[in-house]
Amino acid sequence: HNTLSLLFSLPFLHFLSPSPSLPPTNLFPFLFQKMETAKRILNAHYKGKEPSRIVFEVTATIVGLFGLFKIVNNGKEYKENVIKLVFKSLKQIPLVQGEVDKEKAKLKQMLVKSMGLGHELHRKIPEKGISHDELLDLMKKMVEKEKPEWESGKISGAIYNNDKELNKLLCQVYTLFSIANALHPSVFPSVRKFEAEVVRMACSMMNGDENTCGALTSGGTESILMAVKAHRDFYNKKNPEMIVPVTAHAAFDKAASYFKIKIIHVPVDKDFKADVNAIRKLINKNTILIVGSAPGFPHGIIDPLVELGALAQEFGIGLHSDCCLGGFLLPWVRASGRTEVTPFDFSVKGITSISADTHKYGYATKGTSVVMFRTQELRRSMFFCAPDWPGGMYASPTIAGSRPGALIACCWAALVTTGQETYKQKAMGIWNTAQEIKKGIKKMGTLKLIGESYSSVVAFAPTSSSLNIFKVADAMTSKGWHLNNLQRPSCVHICVTNYHVGKADLFLKDLEDSVDIVTKDPQSFPNGSAGVYGMAASFPDRATVADLGLAYLDGCLEVF
Fold first, then answer.
1. pLDDT, tens digit (0-9, with 9 covering 90-100), for 472-522
2. Among 70, 370, 372, 484, which is most exposed with the fewest C-beta within 10 angstroms?
3. What is the 3-state secondary structure (H, E, C) of 262-291?
Protein backbone atom coordinates (compact mmCIF):
# COMPACT_ATOMS: atom_id res chain seq x y z
CA HIS A 1 0.00 0.00 0.00
CA ASN A 2 2.80 2.39 0.95
CA THR A 3 4.66 1.58 -2.26
CA LEU A 4 1.54 2.30 -4.34
CA SER A 5 1.02 5.61 -2.56
CA LEU A 6 4.61 6.58 -3.16
CA LEU A 7 4.69 5.42 -6.76
CA PHE A 8 1.79 7.69 -7.68
CA SER A 9 4.02 10.56 -6.53
CA LEU A 10 7.13 9.44 -8.42
CA PRO A 11 6.19 10.87 -11.85
CA PHE A 12 6.24 14.30 -10.28
CA LEU A 13 9.76 13.95 -8.87
CA HIS A 14 11.51 14.63 -12.18
CA PHE A 15 9.15 17.17 -13.67
CA LEU A 16 8.70 19.15 -10.45
CA SER A 17 12.35 19.34 -9.46
CA PRO A 18 12.98 23.03 -8.77
CA SER A 19 15.23 24.92 -11.12
CA PRO A 20 18.55 25.97 -9.52
CA SER A 21 17.96 29.53 -10.67
CA LEU A 22 14.56 29.86 -9.00
CA PRO A 23 13.72 29.72 -5.28
CA PRO A 24 11.76 26.52 -4.65
CA THR A 25 9.17 28.39 -2.62
CA ASN A 26 8.23 30.47 -5.68
CA LEU A 27 7.64 27.43 -7.98
CA PHE A 28 4.31 25.71 -7.38
CA PRO A 29 4.66 25.81 -3.58
CA PHE A 30 1.81 23.39 -2.94
CA LEU A 31 3.11 20.69 -5.30
CA PHE A 32 6.66 21.20 -4.11
CA GLN A 33 5.50 20.63 -0.53
CA LYS A 34 3.76 17.40 -1.56
CA MET A 35 6.88 16.29 -3.43
CA GLU A 36 9.03 16.84 -0.36
CA THR A 37 6.55 14.94 1.78
CA ALA A 38 6.58 12.04 -0.70
CA LYS A 39 10.38 11.98 -0.70
CA ARG A 40 10.50 11.85 3.12
CA ILE A 41 7.97 8.98 3.24
CA LEU A 42 9.85 7.15 0.49
CA ASN A 43 13.20 7.50 2.25
CA ALA A 44 11.71 6.45 5.60
CA HIS A 45 9.99 3.43 4.07
CA TYR A 46 13.13 2.09 2.42
CA LYS A 47 15.64 3.17 5.11
CA GLY A 48 18.05 0.33 5.87
CA LYS A 49 16.50 -2.05 3.32
CA GLU A 50 18.44 -3.96 0.70
CA PRO A 51 18.58 -2.34 -2.76
CA SER A 52 17.28 -5.56 -4.34
CA ARG A 53 14.11 -5.34 -2.27
CA ILE A 54 13.60 -1.73 -3.33
CA VAL A 55 13.97 -2.69 -6.99
CA PHE A 56 11.67 -5.70 -6.61
CA GLU A 57 8.87 -3.80 -4.84
CA VAL A 58 8.91 -0.88 -7.27
CA THR A 59 9.08 -3.20 -10.30
CA ALA A 60 6.21 -5.35 -8.98
CA THR A 61 4.13 -2.25 -8.35
CA ILE A 62 4.77 -0.93 -11.86
CA VAL A 63 3.78 -4.29 -13.36
CA GLY A 64 0.67 -4.37 -11.17
CA LEU A 65 -0.34 -0.88 -12.20
CA PHE A 66 0.24 -1.73 -15.85
CA GLY A 67 -2.01 -4.79 -15.46
CA LEU A 68 -4.66 -2.67 -13.72
CA PHE A 69 -4.47 -0.14 -16.57
CA LYS A 70 -5.02 -2.92 -19.13
CA ILE A 71 -8.00 -4.28 -17.21
CA VAL A 72 -9.60 -0.83 -17.06
CA ASN A 73 -9.01 -0.22 -20.77
CA ASN A 74 -9.86 -3.75 -21.92
CA GLY A 75 -12.50 -4.58 -19.37
CA LYS A 76 -14.62 -6.77 -21.63
CA GLU A 77 -11.70 -8.92 -22.78
CA TYR A 78 -10.41 -9.47 -19.25
CA LYS A 79 -13.89 -10.13 -17.92
CA GLU A 80 -14.39 -12.83 -20.55
CA ASN A 81 -11.02 -14.38 -19.72
CA VAL A 82 -11.85 -14.47 -16.01
CA ILE A 83 -15.24 -16.06 -16.72
CA LYS A 84 -13.56 -18.58 -19.02
CA LEU A 85 -11.04 -19.49 -16.31
CA VAL A 86 -13.73 -19.85 -13.64
CA PHE A 87 -15.94 -22.11 -15.75
CA LYS A 88 -12.97 -24.14 -16.95
CA SER A 89 -12.11 -24.81 -13.31
CA LEU A 90 -15.73 -25.60 -12.44
CA LYS A 91 -15.98 -28.13 -15.26
CA GLN A 92 -13.12 -30.09 -13.66
CA ILE A 93 -15.51 -30.91 -10.80
CA PRO A 94 -17.12 -34.30 -11.58
CA LEU A 95 -20.62 -33.13 -10.55
CA VAL A 96 -20.48 -30.10 -12.87
CA GLN A 97 -18.99 -32.10 -15.73
CA GLY A 98 -21.74 -34.64 -15.22
CA GLU A 99 -24.39 -31.95 -15.73
CA VAL A 100 -22.66 -30.76 -18.91
CA ASP A 101 -22.61 -34.36 -20.18
CA LYS A 102 -26.33 -34.65 -19.43
CA GLU A 103 -27.01 -31.58 -21.57
CA LYS A 104 -24.99 -33.10 -24.40
CA ALA A 105 -26.99 -36.33 -24.11
CA LYS A 106 -30.24 -34.33 -24.26
CA LEU A 107 -28.95 -32.60 -27.36
CA LYS A 108 -28.26 -35.94 -29.02
CA GLN A 109 -31.74 -37.19 -28.12
CA MET A 110 -33.21 -34.05 -29.66
CA LEU A 111 -31.21 -34.68 -32.85
CA VAL A 112 -32.38 -38.28 -33.08
CA LYS A 113 -35.98 -37.22 -32.52
CA SER A 114 -35.91 -34.37 -35.04
CA MET A 115 -33.68 -35.89 -37.74
CA GLY A 116 -33.89 -39.65 -37.39
CA LEU A 117 -35.56 -41.25 -40.43
CA GLY A 118 -36.13 -44.74 -39.08
CA HIS A 119 -34.60 -46.47 -42.11
CA GLU A 120 -31.99 -49.19 -42.17
CA LEU A 121 -28.59 -47.89 -41.03
CA HIS A 122 -25.38 -48.54 -42.97
CA ARG A 123 -22.13 -48.61 -41.02
CA LYS A 124 -20.28 -50.64 -43.61
CA ILE A 125 -20.39 -50.76 -47.40
CA PRO A 126 -22.91 -53.54 -48.20
CA GLU A 127 -21.39 -56.86 -49.28
CA LYS A 128 -23.78 -56.85 -52.16
CA GLY A 129 -25.00 -53.60 -53.67
CA ILE A 130 -28.63 -52.50 -53.50
CA SER A 131 -30.50 -52.68 -56.80
CA HIS A 132 -31.18 -49.42 -58.62
CA ASP A 133 -34.96 -49.72 -58.29
CA GLU A 134 -34.79 -50.53 -54.58
CA LEU A 135 -32.36 -47.68 -53.98
CA LEU A 136 -34.48 -45.12 -55.82
CA ASP A 137 -37.61 -46.30 -54.02
CA LEU A 138 -35.85 -45.84 -50.66
CA MET A 139 -34.59 -42.37 -51.51
CA LYS A 140 -37.99 -41.26 -52.87
CA LYS A 141 -39.54 -42.19 -49.52
CA MET A 142 -36.99 -39.99 -47.77
CA VAL A 143 -37.77 -37.08 -50.07
CA GLU A 144 -41.52 -37.49 -49.66
CA LYS A 145 -41.10 -37.32 -45.88
CA GLU A 146 -39.11 -34.08 -46.12
CA LYS A 147 -41.20 -32.38 -48.82
CA PRO A 148 -44.06 -31.09 -46.61
CA GLU A 149 -41.50 -29.16 -44.54
CA TRP A 150 -40.19 -27.02 -47.37
CA GLU A 151 -43.03 -27.13 -49.92
CA SER A 152 -45.32 -25.40 -47.43
CA GLY A 153 -43.55 -22.14 -48.28
CA LYS A 154 -43.08 -21.25 -44.61
CA ILE A 155 -39.32 -21.71 -44.22
CA SER A 156 -37.11 -18.68 -43.66
CA GLY A 157 -34.45 -18.58 -46.39
CA ALA A 158 -32.84 -21.99 -47.11
CA ILE A 159 -34.84 -22.70 -50.31
CA TYR A 160 -34.99 -19.78 -52.72
CA ASN A 161 -36.27 -21.17 -56.02
CA ASN A 162 -39.92 -22.20 -56.23
CA ASP A 163 -39.94 -22.46 -60.03
CA LYS A 164 -40.62 -26.14 -60.74
CA GLU A 165 -39.84 -25.79 -64.43
CA LEU A 166 -36.44 -24.24 -63.66
CA ASN A 167 -35.72 -27.02 -61.16
CA LYS A 168 -36.60 -29.59 -63.78
CA LEU A 169 -34.29 -27.93 -66.30
CA LEU A 170 -31.38 -27.78 -63.84
CA CYS A 171 -31.78 -31.47 -63.07
CA GLN A 172 -31.44 -32.21 -66.78
CA VAL A 173 -28.38 -29.95 -67.04
CA TYR A 174 -26.82 -31.70 -64.05
CA THR A 175 -27.27 -35.07 -65.72
CA LEU A 176 -25.53 -33.81 -68.88
CA PHE A 177 -22.44 -32.66 -66.97
CA SER A 178 -22.43 -35.07 -64.01
CA ILE A 179 -18.93 -36.40 -64.84
CA ALA A 180 -17.35 -33.02 -65.65
CA ASN A 181 -14.53 -31.68 -63.47
CA ALA A 182 -13.41 -28.04 -63.60
CA LEU A 183 -9.90 -29.16 -62.61
CA HIS A 184 -9.46 -30.38 -66.19
CA PRO A 185 -10.47 -27.47 -68.49
CA SER A 186 -8.79 -29.06 -71.51
CA VAL A 187 -11.00 -32.14 -71.10
CA PHE A 188 -14.15 -30.14 -70.27
CA PRO A 189 -13.75 -26.78 -72.08
CA SER A 190 -17.49 -26.12 -71.80
CA VAL A 191 -17.19 -25.97 -68.01
CA ARG A 192 -14.37 -23.45 -68.33
CA LYS A 193 -16.62 -21.33 -70.57
CA PHE A 194 -19.50 -21.54 -68.09
CA GLU A 195 -17.39 -20.42 -65.14
CA ALA A 196 -15.74 -17.53 -66.96
CA GLU A 197 -19.09 -16.26 -68.22
CA VAL A 198 -20.81 -16.57 -64.82
CA VAL A 199 -18.03 -14.51 -63.25
CA ARG A 200 -18.22 -11.89 -66.01
CA MET A 201 -22.02 -11.66 -65.76
CA ALA A 202 -21.77 -11.22 -61.99
CA CYS A 203 -19.09 -8.53 -62.34
CA SER A 204 -21.27 -6.70 -64.86
CA MET A 205 -24.27 -6.89 -62.51
CA MET A 206 -22.05 -5.40 -59.78
CA ASN A 207 -21.04 -2.44 -62.00
CA GLY A 208 -17.53 -3.74 -62.58
CA ASP A 209 -15.28 -2.70 -65.45
CA GLU A 210 -12.88 -4.59 -67.72
CA ASN A 211 -10.45 -5.04 -64.82
CA THR A 212 -12.88 -6.64 -62.37
CA CYS A 213 -12.60 -10.41 -62.18
CA GLY A 214 -13.28 -13.35 -59.91
CA ALA A 215 -13.96 -17.07 -59.60
CA LEU A 216 -16.70 -19.52 -58.71
CA THR A 217 -16.66 -21.12 -55.26
CA SER A 218 -18.72 -23.72 -53.44
CA GLY A 219 -20.73 -21.16 -51.47
CA GLY A 220 -20.67 -17.92 -49.53
CA THR A 221 -18.30 -19.15 -46.85
CA GLU A 222 -15.65 -20.16 -49.38
CA SER A 223 -16.11 -16.86 -51.23
CA ILE A 224 -15.41 -14.99 -47.99
CA LEU A 225 -12.46 -17.27 -47.17
CA MET A 226 -10.94 -16.60 -50.58
CA ALA A 227 -11.44 -12.83 -50.34
CA VAL A 228 -9.75 -12.73 -46.93
CA LYS A 229 -6.90 -14.97 -48.08
CA ALA A 230 -6.33 -12.77 -51.13
CA HIS A 231 -6.09 -9.62 -49.01
CA ARG A 232 -3.76 -11.30 -46.54
CA ASP A 233 -1.32 -12.33 -49.26
CA PHE A 234 -1.70 -9.10 -51.25
CA TYR A 235 -0.87 -6.77 -48.35
CA ASN A 236 1.72 -9.19 -46.91
CA LYS A 237 1.73 -7.84 -43.34
CA LYS A 238 3.70 -9.66 -40.66
CA ASN A 239 0.79 -9.51 -38.17
CA PRO A 240 -2.31 -8.98 -40.34
CA GLU A 241 -5.55 -7.72 -38.83
CA MET A 242 -9.07 -7.25 -40.16
CA ILE A 243 -11.88 -5.21 -38.65
CA VAL A 244 -15.45 -6.48 -38.93
CA PRO A 245 -18.78 -5.40 -37.44
CA VAL A 246 -20.20 -7.90 -34.95
CA THR A 247 -23.04 -8.50 -37.42
CA ALA A 248 -20.69 -9.63 -40.22
CA HIS A 249 -21.00 -13.30 -41.17
CA ALA A 250 -19.23 -15.85 -38.99
CA ALA A 251 -17.29 -16.95 -42.08
CA PHE A 252 -14.95 -14.02 -41.38
CA ASP A 253 -14.16 -15.58 -38.01
CA LYS A 254 -13.55 -18.88 -39.76
CA ALA A 255 -11.21 -17.14 -42.24
CA ALA A 256 -9.33 -15.50 -39.36
CA SER A 257 -8.93 -18.90 -37.71
CA TYR A 258 -7.85 -20.67 -40.90
CA PHE A 259 -5.43 -18.01 -42.13
CA LYS A 260 -4.00 -16.79 -38.81
CA ILE A 261 -5.36 -13.25 -39.03
CA LYS A 262 -6.29 -11.22 -35.96
CA ILE A 263 -9.97 -10.33 -36.17
CA ILE A 264 -11.31 -7.28 -34.36
CA HIS A 265 -15.07 -7.13 -33.82
CA VAL A 266 -16.69 -3.71 -33.70
CA PRO A 267 -20.12 -3.04 -32.16
CA VAL A 268 -22.72 -1.64 -34.55
CA ASP A 269 -24.39 1.73 -34.06
CA LYS A 270 -27.90 2.37 -32.74
CA ASP A 271 -29.33 1.56 -36.19
CA PHE A 272 -27.47 -1.77 -36.27
CA LYS A 273 -25.18 -0.53 -39.03
CA ALA A 274 -21.39 -0.74 -39.12
CA ASP A 275 -20.00 2.09 -36.98
CA VAL A 276 -17.63 3.93 -39.33
CA ASN A 277 -16.06 6.10 -36.62
CA ALA A 278 -15.43 3.09 -34.36
CA ILE A 279 -13.76 1.27 -37.26
CA ARG A 280 -11.62 4.31 -38.04
CA LYS A 281 -10.23 4.36 -34.49
CA LEU A 282 -9.12 0.72 -34.75
CA ILE A 283 -7.25 0.93 -38.07
CA ASN A 284 -3.49 0.60 -37.62
CA LYS A 285 -0.36 -0.39 -39.55
CA ASN A 286 -1.39 -4.08 -39.46
CA THR A 287 -4.90 -3.61 -40.88
CA ILE A 288 -5.39 -5.30 -44.23
CA LEU A 289 -9.17 -5.38 -44.52
CA ILE A 290 -12.40 -3.86 -43.26
CA VAL A 291 -15.82 -5.39 -43.94
CA GLY A 292 -19.35 -4.25 -44.71
CA SER A 293 -22.45 -6.30 -45.54
CA ALA A 294 -25.29 -5.82 -48.01
CA PRO A 295 -27.18 -7.01 -46.16
CA GLY A 296 -25.98 -8.53 -42.88
CA PHE A 297 -27.53 -11.92 -42.24
CA PRO A 298 -28.87 -11.28 -38.71
CA HIS A 299 -30.98 -8.16 -39.23
CA GLY A 300 -30.94 -7.52 -42.98
CA ILE A 301 -29.25 -4.15 -42.53
CA ILE A 302 -27.15 -2.68 -45.35
CA ASP A 303 -23.93 -1.19 -43.97
CA PRO A 304 -22.75 2.30 -45.04
CA LEU A 305 -20.38 1.00 -47.70
CA VAL A 306 -19.82 4.40 -49.35
CA GLU A 307 -18.41 5.74 -46.07
CA LEU A 308 -16.45 2.54 -45.48
CA GLY A 309 -15.06 2.83 -49.02
CA ALA A 310 -13.80 6.34 -48.30
CA LEU A 311 -12.16 5.01 -45.15
CA ALA A 312 -10.48 2.18 -47.05
CA GLN A 313 -9.13 4.62 -49.63
CA GLU A 314 -7.88 7.02 -46.98
CA PHE A 315 -5.84 4.32 -45.24
CA GLY A 316 -4.90 2.30 -48.32
CA ILE A 317 -6.52 -0.95 -47.14
CA GLY A 318 -9.04 -3.42 -48.55
CA LEU A 319 -12.81 -3.33 -48.18
CA HIS A 320 -14.91 -6.44 -48.71
CA SER A 321 -18.59 -6.00 -49.52
CA ASP A 322 -20.32 -9.18 -48.38
CA CYS A 323 -23.34 -9.59 -50.66
CA CYS A 324 -23.63 -13.36 -50.22
CA LEU A 325 -27.29 -13.03 -49.25
CA GLY A 326 -28.31 -9.97 -51.26
CA GLY A 327 -25.97 -10.20 -54.23
CA PHE A 328 -28.54 -11.46 -56.74
CA LEU A 329 -31.45 -9.52 -55.22
CA LEU A 330 -30.40 -5.97 -54.27
CA PRO A 331 -28.89 -5.05 -57.69
CA TRP A 332 -32.29 -5.65 -59.29
CA VAL A 333 -34.11 -3.74 -56.52
CA ARG A 334 -31.82 -0.74 -57.09
CA ALA A 335 -32.26 -1.12 -60.85
CA SER A 336 -36.03 -0.88 -60.24
CA GLY A 337 -35.56 2.56 -58.69
CA ARG A 338 -35.61 1.80 -54.96
CA THR A 339 -33.11 4.34 -53.66
CA GLU A 340 -33.56 3.12 -50.08
CA VAL A 341 -31.05 0.43 -51.05
CA THR A 342 -27.75 2.27 -50.71
CA PRO A 343 -24.74 1.48 -52.98
CA PHE A 344 -22.75 -1.67 -52.24
CA ASP A 345 -21.07 -2.69 -55.53
CA PHE A 346 -17.97 -1.72 -57.54
CA SER A 347 -19.48 1.71 -58.22
CA VAL A 348 -18.37 2.45 -54.65
CA LYS A 349 -14.77 3.62 -54.65
CA GLY A 350 -12.71 1.69 -52.13
CA ILE A 351 -14.50 -1.65 -52.42
CA THR A 352 -11.84 -4.18 -53.40
CA SER A 353 -13.82 -7.44 -53.33
CA ILE A 354 -17.40 -8.69 -53.31
CA SER A 355 -19.03 -12.05 -52.53
CA ALA A 356 -22.43 -13.00 -53.98
CA ASP A 357 -24.21 -16.35 -53.81
CA THR A 358 -25.67 -17.64 -57.05
CA HIS A 359 -27.40 -20.47 -55.18
CA LYS A 360 -29.65 -18.06 -53.26
CA TYR A 361 -31.48 -15.40 -55.27
CA GLY A 362 -29.54 -16.38 -58.40
CA TYR A 363 -31.68 -19.59 -58.27
CA ALA A 364 -28.77 -21.88 -59.20
CA THR A 365 -28.39 -25.38 -57.79
CA LYS A 366 -26.92 -25.44 -54.26
CA GLY A 367 -23.16 -25.29 -54.17
CA THR A 368 -22.07 -22.16 -56.07
CA SER A 369 -21.11 -18.59 -55.24
CA VAL A 370 -19.00 -15.88 -56.89
CA VAL A 371 -16.07 -14.01 -55.34
CA MET A 372 -15.12 -10.87 -57.28
CA PHE A 373 -12.08 -8.58 -57.17
CA ARG A 374 -11.51 -5.07 -58.43
CA THR A 375 -8.11 -6.03 -59.95
CA GLN A 376 -6.42 -9.12 -61.33
CA GLU A 377 -3.44 -8.48 -59.02
CA LEU A 378 -5.68 -8.95 -55.98
CA ARG A 379 -7.33 -12.05 -57.46
CA ARG A 380 -3.93 -13.58 -58.17
CA SER A 381 -3.24 -13.44 -54.43
CA MET A 382 -6.14 -15.86 -53.99
CA PHE A 383 -4.64 -18.48 -56.32
CA PHE A 384 -2.45 -21.40 -55.26
CA CYS A 385 0.34 -22.94 -57.31
CA ALA A 386 2.82 -25.73 -56.50
CA PRO A 387 5.32 -25.61 -59.40
CA ASP A 388 7.72 -28.31 -58.11
CA TRP A 389 5.32 -31.15 -57.30
CA PRO A 390 6.47 -34.48 -58.85
CA GLY A 391 2.90 -35.01 -60.02
CA GLY A 392 3.24 -32.01 -62.33
CA MET A 393 2.63 -28.32 -61.82
CA TYR A 394 -0.49 -28.00 -59.67
CA ALA A 395 -2.57 -24.81 -59.66
CA SER A 396 -6.09 -24.08 -58.43
CA PRO A 397 -8.04 -20.83 -58.12
CA THR A 398 -9.88 -21.65 -54.88
CA ILE A 399 -9.69 -24.13 -51.98
CA ALA A 400 -10.99 -27.16 -53.85
CA GLY A 401 -8.97 -29.03 -56.44
CA SER A 402 -11.63 -31.06 -58.20
CA ARG A 403 -14.78 -29.01 -58.66
CA PRO A 404 -18.10 -30.40 -59.92
CA GLY A 405 -18.64 -29.23 -63.47
CA ALA A 406 -22.32 -30.08 -63.18
CA LEU A 407 -22.88 -27.38 -60.55
CA ILE A 408 -21.01 -24.81 -62.64
CA ALA A 409 -23.13 -25.76 -65.67
CA CYS A 410 -26.33 -25.44 -63.62
CA CYS A 411 -25.22 -22.03 -62.36
CA TRP A 412 -24.63 -20.77 -65.91
CA ALA A 413 -27.95 -22.23 -67.06
CA ALA A 414 -29.88 -20.57 -64.22
CA LEU A 415 -28.49 -17.12 -65.02
CA VAL A 416 -28.97 -17.21 -68.79
CA THR A 417 -32.44 -18.78 -68.71
CA THR A 418 -33.78 -16.49 -65.96
CA GLY A 419 -32.64 -13.20 -67.49
CA GLN A 420 -32.70 -9.66 -66.12
CA GLU A 421 -36.44 -9.07 -66.57
CA THR A 422 -37.39 -12.09 -64.46
CA TYR A 423 -34.73 -11.32 -61.86
CA LYS A 424 -36.17 -7.80 -61.45
CA GLN A 425 -39.74 -9.10 -61.27
CA LYS A 426 -38.93 -11.71 -58.62
CA ALA A 427 -36.68 -9.34 -56.66
CA MET A 428 -39.41 -6.72 -56.36
CA GLY A 429 -41.97 -9.35 -55.33
CA ILE A 430 -39.68 -10.46 -52.51
CA TRP A 431 -38.69 -6.92 -51.53
CA ASN A 432 -42.29 -5.69 -51.41
CA THR A 433 -43.32 -8.69 -49.32
CA ALA A 434 -40.57 -7.91 -46.80
CA GLN A 435 -41.75 -4.28 -46.62
CA GLU A 436 -45.34 -5.46 -46.03
CA ILE A 437 -44.17 -7.63 -43.14
CA LYS A 438 -42.21 -4.68 -41.72
CA LYS A 439 -45.28 -2.44 -41.80
CA GLY A 440 -47.39 -5.10 -40.12
CA ILE A 441 -44.89 -5.62 -37.29
CA LYS A 442 -44.64 -1.85 -36.74
CA LYS A 443 -48.39 -1.81 -36.06
CA MET A 444 -48.06 -4.47 -33.33
CA GLY A 445 -47.58 -3.04 -29.89
CA THR A 446 -45.92 -6.21 -28.68
CA LEU A 447 -43.07 -6.40 -31.21
CA LYS A 448 -40.49 -3.99 -32.61
CA LEU A 449 -38.17 -4.09 -35.60
CA ILE A 450 -34.43 -4.54 -35.20
CA GLY A 451 -33.13 -1.74 -37.39
CA GLU A 452 -34.64 -0.51 -40.65
CA SER A 453 -34.09 -3.27 -43.20
CA TYR A 454 -34.30 -2.60 -46.93
CA SER A 455 -33.47 -6.16 -47.92
CA SER A 456 -35.27 -9.50 -47.78
CA VAL A 457 -34.63 -10.01 -44.06
CA VAL A 458 -36.95 -8.69 -41.35
CA ALA A 459 -35.78 -9.08 -37.74
CA PHE A 460 -37.97 -8.35 -34.72
CA ALA A 461 -37.92 -8.54 -30.92
CA PRO A 462 -40.47 -8.07 -28.12
CA THR A 463 -41.18 -4.60 -26.74
CA SER A 464 -41.45 -6.10 -23.25
CA SER A 465 -38.86 -8.30 -21.52
CA SER A 466 -41.71 -10.43 -20.18
CA LEU A 467 -42.35 -11.83 -23.67
CA ASN A 468 -39.97 -14.65 -24.66
CA ILE A 469 -39.27 -14.16 -28.37
CA PHE A 470 -37.94 -17.69 -28.75
CA LYS A 471 -41.23 -19.11 -27.45
CA VAL A 472 -42.99 -16.95 -30.03
CA ALA A 473 -40.77 -18.65 -32.64
CA ASP A 474 -41.76 -22.04 -31.19
CA ALA A 475 -45.42 -21.08 -31.51
CA MET A 476 -44.77 -20.13 -35.14
CA THR A 477 -43.13 -23.54 -35.64
CA SER A 478 -46.33 -25.17 -34.41
CA LYS A 479 -48.09 -23.32 -37.23
CA GLY A 480 -45.63 -24.63 -39.83
CA TRP A 481 -43.24 -21.66 -39.94
CA HIS A 482 -39.49 -22.12 -39.52
CA LEU A 483 -37.84 -18.85 -38.49
CA ASN A 484 -34.26 -18.03 -37.50
CA ASN A 485 -33.48 -17.50 -33.82
CA LEU A 486 -30.81 -14.84 -33.18
CA GLN A 487 -28.83 -13.56 -30.21
CA ARG A 488 -27.15 -10.39 -28.96
CA PRO A 489 -29.83 -9.06 -28.94
CA SER A 490 -32.33 -11.90 -28.61
CA CYS A 491 -34.61 -11.67 -31.63
CA VAL A 492 -36.03 -13.62 -34.56
CA HIS A 493 -35.95 -13.02 -38.29
CA ILE A 494 -37.61 -14.19 -41.46
CA CYS A 495 -35.65 -14.24 -44.69
CA VAL A 496 -38.25 -13.71 -47.41
CA THR A 497 -38.04 -15.85 -50.55
CA ASN A 498 -40.28 -16.48 -53.56
CA TYR A 499 -42.20 -18.96 -51.42
CA HIS A 500 -43.42 -16.11 -49.18
CA VAL A 501 -44.66 -13.78 -51.91
CA GLY A 502 -48.40 -13.39 -51.35
CA LYS A 503 -48.17 -14.78 -47.79
CA ALA A 504 -47.42 -11.57 -45.84
CA ASP A 505 -50.93 -11.36 -44.35
CA LEU A 506 -50.85 -15.04 -43.33
CA PHE A 507 -47.45 -14.57 -41.70
CA LEU A 508 -48.58 -11.51 -39.75
CA LYS A 509 -51.80 -13.21 -38.60
CA ASP A 510 -49.90 -16.29 -37.39
CA LEU A 511 -47.33 -14.03 -35.71
CA GLU A 512 -50.02 -12.12 -33.80
CA ASP A 513 -51.66 -15.40 -32.77
CA SER A 514 -48.27 -16.75 -31.61
CA VAL A 515 -47.63 -13.67 -29.46
CA ASP A 516 -51.08 -14.10 -27.89
CA ILE A 517 -50.42 -17.77 -27.13
CA VAL A 518 -47.13 -17.04 -25.34
CA THR A 519 -48.53 -13.99 -23.55
CA LYS A 520 -51.40 -16.01 -22.13
CA ASP A 521 -49.19 -18.98 -21.24
CA PRO A 522 -45.50 -18.03 -20.76
CA GLN A 523 -44.71 -21.67 -19.92
CA SER A 524 -45.92 -22.97 -23.27
CA PHE A 525 -43.70 -25.08 -25.54
CA PRO A 526 -41.44 -26.44 -22.74
CA ASN A 527 -39.58 -28.70 -25.18
CA GLY A 528 -39.10 -26.09 -27.87
CA SER A 529 -36.01 -24.18 -28.94
CA ALA A 530 -36.53 -21.38 -26.41
CA GLY A 531 -34.54 -23.19 -23.73
CA VAL A 532 -31.53 -23.80 -25.95
CA TYR A 533 -31.46 -20.36 -27.58
CA GLY A 534 -32.30 -18.54 -24.37
CA MET A 535 -29.38 -20.23 -22.65
CA ALA A 536 -27.05 -19.63 -25.60
CA ALA A 537 -27.91 -15.93 -25.66
CA SER A 538 -27.50 -15.29 -21.94
CA PHE A 539 -25.02 -17.87 -20.61
CA PRO A 540 -21.85 -16.00 -19.58
CA ASP A 541 -19.30 -18.69 -20.50
CA ARG A 542 -19.14 -18.71 -24.28
CA ALA A 543 -16.75 -21.69 -24.24
CA THR A 544 -19.51 -23.86 -22.74
CA VAL A 545 -21.96 -22.62 -25.39
CA ALA A 546 -19.37 -23.40 -28.08
CA ASP A 547 -18.90 -26.86 -26.55
CA LEU A 548 -22.60 -27.56 -27.03
CA GLY A 549 -22.28 -26.35 -30.62
CA LEU A 550 -19.45 -28.80 -31.21
CA ALA A 551 -21.50 -31.54 -29.56
CA TYR A 552 -24.28 -30.74 -32.04
CA LEU A 553 -21.86 -31.21 -34.95
CA ASP A 554 -20.59 -34.47 -33.46
CA GLY A 555 -24.18 -35.64 -33.17
CA CYS A 556 -25.05 -34.71 -36.75
CA LEU A 557 -22.15 -36.84 -37.99
CA GLU A 558 -23.17 -39.91 -36.02
CA VAL A 559 -25.18 -42.72 -37.62
CA PHE A 560 -28.73 -42.80 -36.27
1. 999 999 999 999 999 999 999 999 999 999 999 999 999 999 999 999 999
2. 70
3. EEEEECECCCCCECHHHHHHHCCCCEEEEE
